[in-house]
Sequence to fold (437 residues):
Amino acid sequence: MKLLQRTSRYYLAFSAVAFLLTGLLLFTGLRYIIDEELDDQVADASVRLDAYLAQLPAVPDTFYQLDAVITTAPIERVTGSFTFSDTVFFEPIEGEMEPYRRVVYDREINGQPYRITVSRLKVESEDLIVVLFGVSMAFFGLFLLGIYVLNRYLSLRLWQPFFGALTQVQRFDVKRKTVPVFPPSDIEEFERLNTALRSMTEKLRRDYHSLRQFTDNASHELQTPLAIMRNQVDLMLQSADRSETDFAHLQHLSEALDRLKKLNQALLLLTRIDNDQYEQLADIELGPLLRDKLGQLEVMLEQKGLLLESDLRGTCVRAHPVLLDVLLNNLLSNAIKHNVAGGRVSLTLQNRTLTVGNTGLPLAENGTERLFERFGKGDADNQSLGLGLSIVGEICKRYGYDIAYENRGQWHEVTLSFDVRNDALATRWLNPGNLQS
Fold:
């Protein structure tokens, strides 16, 4: 729900309750005032009524006087003063029950105590109350409507700079060279917001370009010394006048350089993924691509004596070719590398779901929780970098694919879901106007 709608609802609810209470108080107050006025009039008229009854030869039981019905009843002695109450009588002229205001009091008429009841018609008073109440509620309703319309108009007008700034932030792309222009405002809070947004977006652009420049430089500068070191180690290994101890040390150094090279490449890949440097999208059929991958890994399968089971159905996904290639390579090589000799690898692609299963040693305690984290390993003793599945996880997050891991004893299974909604989500994240070839 939008902020303006919520605040308007609060205002309307508060105003409605306030007006309802005001109406009830007004209705009650009018009735009280009118009843008090009627009671005062009856009390004042009782003196004249007593004089009128004293002049009659006999006090009648019931008689009418203008809009009042007067009844008398003899009593033993005068005991009470004025008592006021509401009642209803059948009105033959109107043919319905009408409200009356009744007063009961005791008087001695010509030496005989009587209880006199005067019931005065309240129709005009009730009609007056209803009219006044209706007029008041109509005024309150129009006032409430006016407040709502005025509040909405003023809110939309006063908040226009905020909505303009929000639109600029939504359209902001750190990869573009254009700087967002926030609409000026004479409201201090909105102008402070615009200043903060300008500073933030400019800093984001500078940080992004600095990080991207560092990534590009690192991808070139680090490769050169690593290649030189690798060549020197290879030359030293080819020398025949080395002792076995030197050869062992050089072999360890060579393995360390290989790990450093792979680590550099993996970290650079993760950085590029984080910086959205793989923007170009393409529709890729997974079936043929997976078959090519299995052909490339056939030597590794034979070396470990692994049994391959595959069921590949037609599935097309939209992604960057390099990232999808890395994702499949890491999944398949992970299933082979962490397998046991004479084990089994299962590959199933159907219903836009890819499942890669393999036999392997049980994971260490809490190994599953860190499986997709950077430098997370299922077994702390293995020699892997701990970045393979982390890269898979980052690519899945990049395109909105669902990834899940399941372990049943010595059987490990990773499932990727290329959901249509997620493909659409990934397409929406990327701006087609900025795709680079």
